[in-house]
Amino acid sequence: MTQKTKDLSALVFFILLVMGGGIFIGTQTLPGDWFAGLTKPSFNPPNWIFAPVWTVLYLFIAIAGWRSWRQGWTRTPMQLWFVQLVLNFAWSPLFFTAHRTDLALAVIVLLLVSILIFITKTWRLDRISAGLFVPYAAWVGFATLLNGAIFALNG
């Protein structure tokens, strides 16, 4: 197997891991009646916006993970990439299934911090990966504010 084939196979793996994980968690933790009944802030976006935004972000996350993997599994960016993925995948079950807006808020704050650290650590090594995480950071920052507002409004 050539290096190009290995790289392409790894990219496909990262895309399947992130997109597949996101789709699986998304379909298993649908918002449902509980979420519909919550008081939401005025800046709450319409539900239809989440799927297209997350589809693009998951693609960006996968590409950044693949690029970090190419630099080595034990390097800090790769470790941070895995941390953010675990936190990302943990949020929906806490929020939508367990109805723990408080714990979900703690997780999303940690997620945002891990994303920002990833950007900081990769900026000089790999600006493409860092840049791919900038819209992710912006969206998660917004989602953190939204989670916090929902927690505050619904106690």
CATH topology: Ferritin
| Total strands | 0
Strand content: under 5%
Number of domains: 1
User: What's the total helix number?
Assistant: 6
Helix-and-strand structural type:
mainly alpha
Spatial shape: elongated
Could you say what the CATH architecture is? Up-down Bundle
Under CATH, the homologous superfamily reads: TspO/MBR protein
As a whole number of angstroms, the C-alpha radius of gyration is 16 Å
Q: Separation of termini? A: 56 Å
* N-to-C SSE string, H for helix and E for strand: HHHHHH
- Considering DSSP H and I runs of 4 or more, what fraction of the residues is helical? over 70%
How would you sum up this structure, described in words?
Belongs to the TspO/BZRP family. The protein is mostly helical. The protein has one domain (3-154): Ferritin, CATH 1.20.1260. Helix content is 81%, strand content 0%.
Task: Give a brief outline of the structure.
The protein has 6 helices and no strands.
Helix/strand layout:
Blueprint lengths: L2 H26 L3 H5 L13 H22 L4 H22 L3 H22 L4 H28 L1
Helix pairs in contact: 1-3, 1-4, 3-4, 3-6, 4-5, 5-6
